[in-house]
Fold these 2 entries.
Entry 1:
Amino acid sequence: MKTNDLIIQTTTKVVFFIIFLFSIHIFFAGHYTPGGGFVGGLLMSSAIVLLLLAFDLKTVQEMLPINYTILTAIGLLISLATAAGSIFFNVPFFTHVYDYFYIPLLGETSIHTAMFFDTGVYLVVVGVTMTIIQMIGGDE
Amino acid sequence: MINLLLFPVLIPFLFAAISLFFPKKVKAQRITAITGLLLALVSAIILLVKVKTDGVQALTLGSWAPPFGITMVSDMLSVLLVTSSILISLFVVWYSFSSIGEEREKAFYYPAILFMLTGVNGAFTTGDIFNMFVFFEVLLMSSYVLIVLGGEKVQLRESIKYILVNVISSSLFVITVGYLYSVVGTLNMADISIKLADIGQTGIVTVIAVLFLIVFGIKGGIFPLFFWLPGSYAAPPVPVLALFGALLTKVGVYAIIRTYTLFFTTDVGYTHELLMIISIITIIAGCIGALAYFDLKQIIIYNIVIAVGVILFGVSTMNESGLMGSVFYLIHDILIKGALFLLIGIIIKITGTSNLRKMGGLIKHYPILGWSYLIAAFGLAGIPPLSGFVGKLLIVQGGLEGEYLWQSIFILASSLVVLLSAIRIFIYAFWGEEKGSHDISPKLYRHLMAPTVTLVAITVLYGVGSEFLVPFMTDATSVLLDPSVYTDAVFEGVK
């Protein structure tokens, strides 16, 4: 039976971007306020799960043609590369550095290498969560 | 290169992450796995030389001062274990090429092995008790994947048991670390050692020591906590079984050795006597199991339990010969169990069964297999020039020096049982009239024999070259006997 889910689909189209932006906000705010890569990644996956609820699996895979296993691997490599960068400077592994950079529109901003590590965490969390949900949901 | 001691942990991790990109390309998977393992082996050997010449290596991650950051410590014991675990993984991967089957290879088999090796090496190298928990989880989760991969009925049943037991023991680990943290207020193992030496062995510290024994005992398979081990280890295919049998229980044993020589040393009366009693009962239980079965896999699996008991007995004596014997025997057992599981894997492949009664007369067509099995069996039992001899000799010597006469007799008697159980496989499978079908192509047989025979040759070299290894073992033992060597290396330049 085909149900009419016009309301949920229309709402999702708006709410998806709000959740997505909130996840990005939480991710960048993690250094000074509660948040970070893990929560940000979970929020991002919850936004995709909302898409999965409103549309079916096939449509969502067409909207976001991402192989989540590869996404997980990329995340792992980014985190490892950030931590391993210290090897080339002969300082202990995981040594982070930060500096201030001038970025157009944003102005003077401090960039900390911990952010790149968190990017890896973010991608791994999204990748793993979505792999689990797609694997379980895809068995039809 | 101050980060050298991390390379055996990082290289398998890097190559595991890379091989996630192309799960369906079997050839590329194999090349990635073997390259990663070879590079890791080279780095481990360089590290071994470094530790031998410069003493204990310690590094606190993130440039923090020692008790505040995560410290990684590579002393002789840990670097020897790291080297031998990489070596075993290398042979198991080589053996897997022709035995595991393409279906499993396409389902993230090699990444799982590499991630497991990351966890094992990390657990051997870490100097932080909570970090050790994390590395335990890394290796356990990869082992969950390996035990269930393939999805046969028996694998599904046994993996539920295995996961359930390990989840419970892991939560107990967290609780125990919580207790320890509330007593000493630190997680750095060197710092815990110093703080515990200051406050002495109060009642709560003894309770924590026993809790650690329970936690690592479940992982390592001591009596009465090994109940999950025989069933779970028999479920996965032989290369995975070899990896599990050689490495996983040894991580638990290493953790017991580390905590009982570094943390709980001020009052050894209760804790180490308990360890001794348990290790003797473990040996007896393992002997009963090894004699009771007519199943190839079960006989060798119960031999793991016996070996765990023998190693822990050496630790519980807390004297130089006993500890040195334990280190010798630990490395020997990693190598020989790997070799034996690979050998019985070939026997099972030839006869198509693991039931001893249904096979016979293999020596006529497979003489090399037969004689290498006999050498491995003698090595397992500890016949003189072979690998098990020196370790057990030193353990018994340590037992007699500590005036534990009866316990030492048990160790010697257990060798007879081990020999009997292993020789029974030889007699039933290789002697007598030819029985059962022999359906194995000569090419497959050669491909399976190459890594196995090389590994058996390495165990023989380990036994024959014991004299050459003594300086390494002495270094390992001196750190175990004197925790201040360990703590000084960690706090070097701070205090």
Entry 2:
Amino acid sequence: MNNSDLAQILIRAVQEADSSERLVDAVQELAAASIEESVPTLIAALGYNNPGAAVAAVDGLIAIGEAAVSPLLELIDDYNYGARAWALRALAGIGDVRALDTLLEAAKTDFSLSVRRAAARGLGTLRWHQVPLEKVESVQTEVLEALLLISQDPEWVVRYAAVTSLETLAIAIAVTLPEQASQITNQLQQILDTDADLGVRTRVKFAQEKIQQQQHQEVFAPKRKLQDTEVEVPHRGGGRR
Amino acid sequence: MNSSPQKFEDLSATGDNADGGSLTVEQAIANLESEDLGLRFYAAWWLGRFRISEPAVVTGLIKALEDEADRTPEGGYPLRRNAARALGKLGDRQAVSPLIACLDCSDFYVREAAAQSLEMLGDPVCIPALIKLLAAGLHGEQLVSQQPDLSQPYEAILEALGTLRANEFTSLVKPFLEHPIELVQYAAARAMYQLTEEPAYGERLVKALAGERLQLRRAVLADLGAIGYLPAADAIAQTLAENSLKLISLKGLLEHQVNHTTPTTLSEDAIKVINLMDSLL
């Protein structure tokens, strides 16, 4: 049996599932097969109002990866915000920069907090190496501005997601855009000082720890080189003694 | 609890203008005494939703607890229900005595709302009145024989007793672990955990996360978040339910953990919960 036959059998099982549990099982099997042909069926499963099936479908779409991005962007459901949130979760998991505009718009303007949350998270999981080198800095600055805005969302969970993304962005741009990186650390400190939500403040502390660890590594690496050269100095100057 | 999951997570949460931003605080306060009963009902909800805890609001809502104008065909008091719910959210302890009086109201849903709000206000002075209601379901230290007994809002009462640490009444809470309604059992387990800190009661809830019905799993997620039962973290992340509800539940664990440890560094347990939360965003 080739992949296409297998896909057809598994897709039919999803379509014919007659109970919530069978649907979850069928979507899990289809997702595990990781066949490109199954993408539309997996996307449809995001809209069944069945969290088990949706989780499995998201996992399947992430596993398929880049091939699922265009269909996800095309088939994103403007009228079912449950499905839209799961679709954005899949896009966030894949991290493909083709989703950037969709993520930015959803994170800033969607009325559903679960959509904004998933999009805010997705802005921190983008694969920067896909962006042409000459554009990376301007795109990162654009994402930073969006995240600074989203980190003031009225919903704690959206702010929480924004903090996770500020953390990864701060680490990604620590060397290339130090000024913007310090904008992030300032914003994190401000959230820590003022946010009403203990969960968000706790996540900020964790982000600060991670960013500091990264800084230690960056400082530590060049220092070792320096020490190496210092060791050489007395060696070279040894003849003067 | 029977609304669709999207409604469940988004209805109460979209923020300022989608649902009622057209009201001003002054209008809402004035509307509490409007001729239009619909406007009164909406104003009471709105003031709670946006947590407008001005003295005039508290006074107006306390007055609304004795409303006679707004009645359902079955004799219920819709405005009183909304006023009782709102008062819980405003955090003003002036509401405690009037809410205790509501525990005697003929309307089940007013009693339920009052118990929930008394839990939120956190003043243990209401414990004897809650126990009086709870005792309606008991013969001594056993459940009354006619079951399921739906005469009182046991779920809300038990949750309040747990939160308010009514430790001297543990023996009256415990029988409700055997109540035929699962939601009442969970409320009892949640309260028993808060009263005794025995892991067995937390585990009872963890086991319920593997249950068949989504509606019950959602309720248990809320219970575990409320008690901050850390060993449930993985089970919460894995249960089949909306991520939004799992995130709220895990946030409860995280905050409980942070509140009960030294604030300087994050514990391993806290980091574990954070990582689970990140994976669900």
